[in-house]
Design goal:
The protein is of the alpha+beta class. The protein is built from 16 helices and 16 strands. It is about 40% helix and about 20% strand.
């Protein structure tokens, strides 16, 4: 790897960029499996900046799968406790609805102000209901929507009750904060009670927020294009352009990447070396949540098919990419039947299905399935279908 020189543009091979990104995202290098769970989880959340949430649960929910891929078979209860206990994190809009370190609360002031300027998200907000929700939280919080008396059977936004609209608006604008998920329901509290006073009082301007978040995106990814930096926290490309010069990220050229890129100087300080993770990834893992980036960096065309009609699915319902040797070598569509982890379909990538790679690919698959099965309390594994012939 070329070393960073003042005022010089660094040139990276595609392989170097791929390994830099793996290390930055916690999937290559130093062993993260040492130490107490809360400390490891805190380091992980700080490294990633945001862990995306999603309603789908097959083996586990996505925010559990992300630390599993990096920390190993940490107990699921310990993961939940590490996220939410002690005011370590809050939920807000990052790449999507995400768990975010509480220290980053000030950085989302620009997004809270944006909601305020817009005046609503999907619905107009009834001021009387807002006042009632504020009063209930002050007197009784933290509370779920059901406890506030505004839950409905349908979860779609067009079916929201006035109370649900009000509490989500308070969340969007920063008066309320989600401090936990309980039975997959958000638990809301007043920000003035849940967020440390020094963080609550901090009020950086939009440019300062965006500069910090774009820098954070660069640190999380190691090396990234303008589009990658914008996607990580879902900011606009022109916002990246406006602050990139203040982030401390340095321009790089990556062989084969059509767009310019930037890198975190710390990621360039030493070549990425160490143990590669062999694991199943959540389809919402930050390594793959951006389809164009996964395609460019790994040659992996990633698509979530859970919302595709069953007859039109190619790889399965909740397809989990299989990571091994620093490459995305295939996809697994998992299910659970009692104490058996079932791989309904395994689809290997062409490069992993060659005669030279077949044995290693199968070994990686068996290891990943066995590890995942043990983690979720299964004592048997069954593979139903492999779509690429091996060997």
């Amino acid at each position: 790897m070329a070393m960073l020189l003042p005022e010089a543009e660094v040139e990276l091979s595609a392989s170097e960029a791929r390994r830099i990104q793996l290390r930055a995202l916690g999937l290559l290098g130093a062993d993260a499996r040492r130490g107490a769970v809360p400390a490891r989880m805190a380091r992980l959340l700080d490294r990633l900046g945001a862990v995306q949430l999603d309603t789908i649960s097959v083996l586990a929910r996505s925010h559990e799968l992300v630390p599993y891929a990096r920390l190993g078979a940490v107990g699921r209860a310990a993961v939940e406790d590490a996220y939410w206990s002690g005011g370590r994190a809050f939920e807000y809009w990052a790449h999507a609805a995400s768990i975010i370190p509480v220290a980053d609360w000030p950085l989302f002031a620009f997004r809270r102000r944006e909601f305020q300027r817009r005046g609503k998200r999907w619905h107009s907000v009834d001021k009387t209901v807002l006042d009632d929700v504020r009063a209930r939280l002050a007197a009784e919080g933290p509370l779920t929507t059901r406890e506030l008396g505004g839950a409905k059977a349908g979860g779609d936004w067009w079916q929201w009750s006035d109370t649900k609209i009000a509490i989500e608006w308070l969340l969007d604008t920063g008066e309320a904060v989600c401090v936990e998920r309980r039975g997959w329901r958000r638990v809301y509290d007043l920000a003035e009670r849940a967020i440390p006073a020094d963080l609550l009082a901090a009020d950086p301007g939009d440019a300062a927020c965006l500069t910090a978040l774009v820098a954070r995106s660069g640190r999380a990814l190691g090396v990234a294009t303008r589009a990658d930096l914008a996607d990580y926290y879902r900011v606009r490309a022109e916002q990246v352009d406006a602050v990139i010069g203040e982030t401390g990220l340095v321009p790089v050229r990556v062989a084969g990447w059509p767009a310019a890129a930037w890198a975190d100087p710390a990621a360039l300080a030493s070549p990425p070396r160490g143990r590669h993770a062999t694991t199943l990834l959540s389809p919402f893992d930050p390594l793959v949540w951006d389809r164009s980036r996964a395609s460019r960096v790994f040659g992996f065309d990633h698509r979530l098919e859970a919302y595709v009609k069953k007859a039109d699915r190619v790889h399965g319902y909740f397809v989990m990419p299989l990571l091994a040797g620093g490459r995305l070598i295939g996809r697994v569509d998992p299910a659970r039947e009692g104490r058996t982890l079932v791989a309904r379909q395994v689809s290997f990538e062409p490069h992993a299905a060659t005669p030279a790679r077949a044995e290693a690919s199968l070994a990686a698959l068996h290891r990943a399935l066995a590890d995942a099965a043990a983690w979720v309390g299964c004592d048997d594994v069954r593979v139903e279908r492999v779509t690429a012939p091996l060997g």
